[in-house]
Amino acid sequence: MSLLQEFKTFAMRGNVVDMAVGIILGGAFGKIVSSLVNDVIMPPIGLLIGGINFTDIKITLKSAAFDANQHLIPAVTLNIGSFIQTMVDFTIVAFAIFLMVKAMNRIQKKKDKPASVSLPSNEEKLLTEIRDILKSKK
Question: CATH top-level class for 3-114?
Fold first, then answer.
C-alpha cells in the first residue's frame, strides 16, 4: 500500500473526521465563551468592584523608555487582569463541557437501559392457554 493511499485511508476514518469537527466546533465555542466573559460577565463584575476593567490590571516591572536612537522600548508588565479573565474563561468552558458530557451520559444511560419487560396479565395468560389448546386439537 502506498504512503498516499495509507494516508487517505487514515484521514477518511470516521474517528479522524469526528475529531476534526470537534476541534473546529471547540474553537468556535471558545470564541463564544470568551466573548461572553469579556463582554457580558466581566463588565458588571468590574463595576461592582469600583469600575475596574480587568484587562487594565497590570504590574509594571520596567517603565517604557527611549534608547539612544530615540526608539521606544515598551514597558515590561505582568498582565494580571488578562490572566484573571482567562481563568474565568477556562472555568466557564470547563463547566459548560461538564454539563454537556453529563447530559450525554444521561442520554446514553437511557439508551442502554433495557426495555422494561412487563409480565402478561391474567387475560393474556388465559388467551395464550386457549390458543395453545386450540393448536393442539388440530
Answer: mainly alpha
